[in-house]
Amino acid sequence: MRPEDCLFCKIARGDVPASLCHSGDEVVAFDDVNPQAPVHVLVIPREHITSLEHARDDHRSLLGALLVVARDVARTRGLAESGYRTVINIGDDGGQSVPHIHVHLLGGRSLSWPPG
Ligand code: DGP
Question: Which residues are bridge partners to 39 per DSSP?
């Protein structure tokens, strides 16, 4: 998919509205439109990477940055003590529906395990 056609690239560029909670040089975070928990934030790179499976070895630092932003948003939303979950869905069996890598940050309630 071309970045011009990608929904999350459009959100990162500001072409599609979203409730942003982080907007950095490399990483953007925003509330999920269909929240599965009281806090449900998506953390994405500005660079279009289709999925973790499409990430290159030299994306190592950027992939780490996604988790650091997720942690910081979790702290800002008051989840540090209660706990939270980060999830990356990959491909069809992983349940990925938007082909732009994203970390789900979920919290604010007790989350069951294992996932379905
Ligand atoms: P996944 O299934 O892992 O690819 O998660 C995609 C998530 O993206 C899903 O939880 C719903 C969310 N989502 C889809 N479209 C939009 C949108 O236009 N805006 C926002 N904020 N979230 C979206």
Answer: 107
Peptide bond into 35 cis (omega under 30): no
Instruction: Give the pLDDT band of residue 4 (cuts 50, 70, 90).
Output: confident
pTM given for the model: 0.98
Indicate the domain borders of the chain. Answer: 7-107
Tokens encoding 71? 């942690």
Ligand 1 pocket: which residues have CB below 6 Å? 7, 18, 30-34, 42, 89, 95-98
Atom of ligand 1 nearest to the CA of 97: 4
Q: Output the residue whose Cα is nearest ligand 1's atom 15.
A: 33
Assigned CATH for 7-107 = 3.30.428.10
